Amino acid sequence: MSNINETPDESLHGLAHVDEKYKDWFLDYASYVILERAVPGVEDGLKPVQRRILHAMKEMDDGRFNKVANVIGQTMQYHPHGDASISDAIVNLGQKDLLIETQGNWGDVRTGDDAAAARYIEARLSKFALDVAFNNKTTEWQLSYDGRKNEPLALPMKFPLLLAQGAEGIAVGLSTKILPHNFCELIDASIKYLRGKKFELYPDFLTGGMIDVTNYNDGRRGGKVRVRAHIEEKDKKTLLIKDVPYGVTTTALMESIVKANDNGKIKIKKVVDNTAKDVEIEVQLAPGISPDITIDALYAFTDCEVSISPNACVITADKPVFMGASDLLKYSADFTKELLRRELEIKLSELEEKWHYTSLEKIFFEKGIYKELEQKHKDWETVLQAIDKGFGPYKKQLKREIQREDILKLTEKPVRRIYRLDINELAEQIKGIEADIKQVKHDLANLTDFAVSYYEGLLKKYGKGRERKTEVKLFDTIQVQQVAIANTKLYVNRNDGFIGTSLKKDEFVADCSDLDNIIVFRRDGVMLVTKVADKTFVGKDIIHVDVFRKGDERMIYNMIYVDGKTGYSLAKRFNVTGITRDKEYHLTKGEKGSKVHYFSANPNGEAEVVTVRLSPNCAAKKKEFDFYFETIPIKARSSMGNVVTKWPIRSVKFKEKGASTLSGIKIWYDDAVGRLNTEQRGIYVGSFEGDDKILVFYKNGTYELTNYEITNRYESNDAVYIEKFNPERIVTAVYFDADKKQFNVKRFKIETQTLNNKFSFIKEGANNYLELVTTQAEPVVILRTGKKRSPEEEEIALHETYEVAGWKTVGTKIAGDDFVSIELITEDEEAEKEEDDEGNIQTELF
């Protein structure tokens, strides 16, 4: 309440007009909506709600699917809005089929069907998401809205996610619309950018269809794309719409067709939705109506064609910025390169620290500095100083100063016995660490090559099945009568030299489109590319024919040919990414008499092994040998190749496939939940690839071999031991025989190979159970027998006392009913401490 003695001006002092407050409030609200709700961040391509969902799912991730309702609850710890917005965002992410694996009814963007309720559907992070989106060591954090949790400012995304998924949002006075692009093409473009090459990016939609990108304008404001559905002519009275344009549902499309018919734009008899796994809308024409004219009318007057105006706007340094798709990709590639650099630097720091301590440990034991622990120093500080002084002559060998913590860590190590073998092992460890350090430094010095290799790994691991789904075409040149992709079949007559779609009695090659180009290789070493036709003569002795995919750098051709002039046989590996149609290219030197001995096409650049047999009449001493294509580099198709032999070749036969280049997956076992994982939770099991198996032992005396799928579940209460299976390892087991009331030892090798079957390796009996099992090569145990309060202890080397026998044998008695316990001395206890009569610590070499 104002003072009655104050003047009116004095009583209003410090107050603001409503219009001034409204101006501030509006700006605050607009900024909040732009920054915190509608527009994605440029670093990871995510809106805040999406980022919080992924962060929450990462915290929940254990390899299993989680109810979406639970994910929503977890996300609400970070997101200050209701569950409806979170639910919609999760469904949107799941339908993009990239970061989230889904289970249940997640709806259908093509038909417009909604997803089931959150309590009925499940989700988990995809392996791709786990690979590219998370790394706590390179993540910057902030407090959540209520200050109780930490959440990422941006995820360390090593992939152009924003361009892959697309984004759409409406804020106050601002909107963004970024169209999705093709997964493989984004990686190829990132590699080209890092290599300093030009690249092009065009949208690609999961719904398929066709797109005209003439006015795309790199996704900037003012650009426009036209998107069409494929329409097939089933017969003269029926048309089939095989997909829907991006952003259009089958229901909306049918409604637009009915509306166009009602408005007299087209004449149809009936429209029927036959959509199931694939989209199919059947349009039945009115009598006497031309199907060709109707197709043009459908594009002109219905949602069979739509126009989309992109408007790429992102948040950069807390400000909305308009960028093009190329700029976004360049930023992502540079950001990824920087993240990889930071990861390498962190790895290098960890390796250097590991090298330092391992070197200290080696000097500590090798130079006898550990003996200072045996001396009668007056106090602990004196011991530490003596140890530090002992390192004096060797400090120049180290890369940093010795800290007090280093010495304390050495003295806290359990020291029992120290053999020369351990010092040699430490030396080997140091060599391995130095090799790793050298590799990391090399990668840092060649960061661009390392980033390119990273992208190539992503493409190889996740690119399959993510090929372009939307055709890029100029609509004004399209023949609408030939809309379908792969609407015909290609055949070949190798001997006569004909290819075409009408040779149905000859060898089938592949499904193709009337618009496809076909690549042909002949025995004389000539290659050409020609358009699909009913029947085309391309030359006799065809050795390979296929649909030509322009720009496919992963298709590698391996070839061995003889040069007609010199008689030398040469090998080459090459790709074909661009050509002039109907021009013949000589893959040999072009000399008369040249011919191809061997040819193979490898979609992923495989390098096989072949057996070369020389003519028996030649003077060569070795008339048969293996040739490894991996020994020669991939070059341009015009390269002549490497000499295989100067002697005449009789035959070249395929011997074996090239080795896989996929690296193994590192797996841990979380005994708390009985699940495998790749997030380093629990016990490290090993690195797995190919047909590797996991060996599990259970309390009831059974073992089981399984694959290494993350979805595997092992009952944590029953599983007592798990490791990567090695058939050469010897299993040592101690079990209780209830009938004889004794404990038996048996040593055996795993002889079975059947997966997911449990085999009992102890004597059958209702009360028999497994007491101990290990695959240590030289297991040593401490056996305690007698009275429980004061048992007698005996150290037994089981490998010296008990023979290896079959896995079905009963075993040999080790203890009777006076058994108290048995303890395995683990291999990671590198030394043990023993005291003599005077209390001095005695150490012995292993």
Automatic annotation (TrEMBL):
The keyword Coiled coil applies. It comes from the Bacteria. Residues 826-839 have a biased composition (Acidic residues). This is DNA gyrase/topoisomerase IV subunit A. Belongs to the type II topoisomerase GyrA/ParC subunit family. SUPFAM superfamilies: Type II DNA topoisomerase. The active site is at Y120. Residues 39-450 form the Topo IIA-type catalytic domain. The lineage of its organism: Bacteria, Pseudomonadati, Bacteroidota, Chitinophagia, Chitinophagales. Residues 826-846 are annotated as: Disordered.
